[in-house]
## 1
Amino acid sequence: MKRLFGKYHQLILRKPLLTNMISTGFLLGTGDCLAQTLFPTQPGQPYDWIRTLRAVFYGGVIFAPLGDKWYKILNTKIVWRGKNERTMSTILRVAVDQLVFAPFIGIPLYYASMTILENRQPYLDRILEKFSTSYWPTLRSNWLVWPIFQWFNFYLIPVHYRLLAVNLISIGWNTYLSFVLHNTK
């Protein structure tokens, strides 16, 4: 395990975006795999490899570049100057992440992208339908999981490992998202 982490460390320092794209795609695919295996929409349902590939594509090509940039922006632009700088910067970063990114970028991007990747037409109607059934439950669940984790992530983890840390916790989160995407009308 130590050797694997050493290789990852070398890659993340040399090619951060590419490394984040590969790891994010893999881990979103893992979340979809778990959702299909543990929570099938119908008993005896065959495994949908195309669905998993869509999750891998979304994670690696759409979300990873955005997440990579997001954590770097938070680290450099959201900084408290003064007393308790580290603690206050962490609080601000969590607040911006949870009050800006999650409700206005992360969750809408996921549902809109996956609806388009699934070729559910008419796109706008299907996206609005997904938002009406899933947006608030997803956002509320997000606020139960992510603020606490992000506090530790922003406070303890170096910026170049933050997306990986999020991705590891996201195996469970992505399982939940995939379940919600495919099990609410």
## 2
Amino acid sequence: MNKLDTFNLEDSQASSTKNHFLAWDKEYTHLKWGGPAPIRDIQAYLLLGSTVLDAGSGNGRYLGELARHYNAVGIDISITALNGSRARLSRSGRFAEHLGASILDLPFKTHTFDGILCYGVLQHLFKKERESAVEEFSSILRKGGFFFFEAFGYKDMRCGGEPSIHCEERTFSRQNGIIYHYFTKEEVRTLFKGFEIMELEDVIKEKNFKGKVYRRHLIKGIFRNP
């Protein structure tokens, strides 16, 4: 049984439990490629040749750079995203294994990876799903391995500010069916309570436009599996 089927969510969330995963394949049919993204944080902690998982690799913004330095594996729920990522890496002469899978049911043996990258992914899950995903990550990450986290923070201008349905605390379902959750640092500490915190920081950027402040808020963390 898929782990999604075991959650005891409120009736108002029941259909979203399934549909918010399926929504991503449609989303990736029109998402534009944003170019490669830097992996300096990962390089500061992981040796060349380490085995690294990009959990929720999407169209490969990080996976392409990971493949330059590591034995990289990317998983995503969207086959459309994986196909685009695979083709892009092939054109650049790089290789990374691509697998269609949910982070709630990872197809790997215990202690497989030296590092796991999960940027902009856990923010799209309900609370019980986030907790289940972290349990999965803890299992497949080697002892002493590192987990790299990034997600929206609660001070972000979009937190509850766009047309959406309020599902859980600081958690909203948008019109496209995708879930958006906005973290606090204390919440992140609790979520990763089984890990050693190496780094945990707020990244806040503000822009003034016509006298109004627009704020983007990310929370970034690096955690070690003890």
